[in-house]
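@channel anyone free to eyeball this complex?
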Amino acid sequence: MAFHYFFAHRLHGKRGSVRHASVALATLFAATALVLSGCGSRTSQTGIGASPSSSPNTSASATPMKGGTLTVLTSQSSLSLDPATSQSLPTTTTGLVHRRLTTWKISHGKTTVVPDLATTTGTPSDHGAVWTFHLKKGLRFSNGKPITSQDVKWGIERSFSDTFTGGLSYHKQLLAGAANYHGPFSGQQLNSIETPNDSTIIFHLNSPFGAWPWVASLISFAPVPRGDGTQKSYGNHPVTSGPYQVQSNSPGRELVLTRNPYWKASTDSVRKAYPNRIVYRMGQDDTVAAQQIMQGVNGGDTSILGEFVPPAQLAQAQANPQYSQLLVTSGDGALEYIAINTRHIRNLAVRQAILWATDRAGYRTAAGGAIAGNYATTLITPGIAGRQKYDLYHVPTGGDPARARAILKRAHVTVPTLKMVIQQNKTEQASAIQSSLKKAGINVRIQVLDSGVYSDTVTNNQGNYDLTIASWQPDFPDAYANLAPLFSSSMIGNGNQNMSRYSNRAVDALMTQATQTVDQKAAGKLWAQADQRIMHDIPVVPLIYSHNTFIHGSRVAGFDIGNFPAYPDYLTMGLTRD
Amino acid sequence: MRMFDYILRRLISSLLVILIIAVTLFLIFYMFPSNPAQLSCGKPCSPEQLRRVSAFMGTDQPWYAQLGAYLLGIFAGRTFGTGASAVVCAAPCLGYSFRLNEPVTTLIAERFPVTASIAVGAAVLWIIIGVGTGVLAAVKRNTWVDRLLMALSAIGISSPSYLIGLLAIIVFAFELPVFPSGGYVPFSRNPAGWFSHLLLPWLVLALINAASYTRITRTQMIGEMEQDYIRTERSKGAPESVVVGRHALRNALLPVMTMFGLDLGSLLGGAVLTERVFSMQGLGMLLLDSVTNLDLQVLVGSTLFAAALVIVANLVVDICYSFLDPRVTVGR
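replying in thread with the prediction:
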């Protein structure tokens, strides 16, 4: 599923829902917003864009104070904090309430994996097929009970229950003997997780997996008190281990987080926990919320917007020096690309022609211009360890339709009209691609789908499309999470993201080898090799690495975005004095 | 007794309508080649995991089996899964949202007060404003008052509620911060907060909806005022207020009542645009969310609820008719 579909929601710990705007409604709102701001600027509806006057990736330099109430305005209508069903990033909402074995530290733009509940990021044995962690001393839940290795194990086991699905499930495919495991509620344990004592936890994997320390940072590795969390509604009021606990959670209205008295800063090297309270106001209209933050009214000065800045407000803020300093733009984030359905378009010459004909400059203009992102040539995105910059084809950014025509002529193929399915927020970009392919004699029919239907269409087993525009930011900053979900032959259909339906045994083997390599430097080299190997087959046309722009109130400090992920770090945010 | 028969017959036909709506929704939904379980499968999703999720949600069954289970659940309740983590949806189970982890009945119960607060408050305002200005325009026919009111109502009818709503927020919540910019406060928690949060949406909705009531009341009033019985009333020396208020208005209100019943009924089913712009999570937003998330059970449940509201409102209007106009008898 496209990045926007999942990612916008993973900020708050909710899985698979979509921004609530139907095609018509979104269009109407965009139109209104443009009218109100008196400006016709073209930016993509996801709010991608950069502010030339704002310093990149960081907010006001003031250090946050301890205390105060930070408000997060979000369009989501409910916020579930269930570790088993969430796909949230470690550095956003669920990171405030749930600790994991390891977590992410974002410092000077770099994201590294660091110990969280554990004392190290894991000790591998058996060539990386067994990983051992020891818990720190003195860890307690928000209910005062000590956190033990059994609680971590219970949390992970819980995620296998048929009732609690929808979360990040990398571990489900890696842990040994997990295929037929249905969770702990019927009294069965997952034997591949050993807990020899209260502070030790050992994982036995199907095969060596070098990036396990990153997997252990994901939300499923948050502890749940043994025996707890049987109810589907557990995520509304979970027992927490992070600096905050849930005071109240009213779907559709607000989630109030207050300090967890049992959390100790001395055991946590990442979470700053500046505000006393963090309040999420749900179901907000993003245009109204952005306006509220800019004008600093109704508590807008101490608020942040949980989503990208809508296009009209982005243009408005950029034009006003007072507002533009409230914007923070990420560096190169998600890869936006055209996925070519390789099961429909089997002829490499046709895929080559599509690559040469694609006018990336036109695409970027339609997405909002230079502010939308930088041109992409690699599949592994910047900020991911092991990435090697390369440009296999040196296609001009405006495309080369003449060369595309020549390729087709040489191969003696005529291309039938291709069906491109897209989400409603990509209509302008799709038209740009349509007209550039037409210059090379390739006709494209665009079908616009509502987000839920779109994600189903591109990830189901039928694959009834030839082309689609997608974007992807990995779930953790490792090339495995970057390439495997998009290009592994096991990720075709069934709700998975290999939208090119690309299957190449040699590439599968190379990715498996890279996955099993524990030495991360050596693994990085293999991944870089896989990156280029895939691009030889052109299952996708890389377009841009998109930039996301966010907005925060004038009294919010520490609103930083590292190189990965292209989202603000909620763990280090706070308020300044008046 | 005749009234009782009438209501009974109407109720039965209403249930039939609701059943047809439910079947149609299921059929439309299953024309998509989609499996909602895919959205709940997790990332990455293995075929085995997808099979498990589909079995748990019941989406692996053919559509008629799912429809049957759904309809049965309304009367008998449903249980998804087994054991300690089984999900129980007690009767009347209008479905269960696996996305929001709540039975649809609970969701509706949570959201309905929001929509009802918006709709009823706005309806009271617009009927007063609409009928009042309509009568005034009719009485002052062809004067500047009439022309001004007609011009204003033309603006009202042609203004989209989201535009007026957004402008109202910018003016009254941001520039002159007298109202909150949005959100909903339950009446039980803080009546004053409830009122202050709702006033702006009420005014916006009322002004827009009142416009068409102004027009229809005016037209009806003018028609009535030209009737013979009005002339007779006047010739008998009845004061103008009695002529207008007790005789003409009472007759003119009949079509207005019909329109009001339908408008209020459909608004109670969800004021999508108003809810969205004022950041209130009512039934309209619930319905919209369910469409974009392929949340079939919420979609069907909330649509059925909305349909039931319109049907009930219609019924109430028809019954009220007989009180307003003794010539109209129910069931004939």
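from a first look: Chain B touches chain A through 67 residues (CB under 8 Å).
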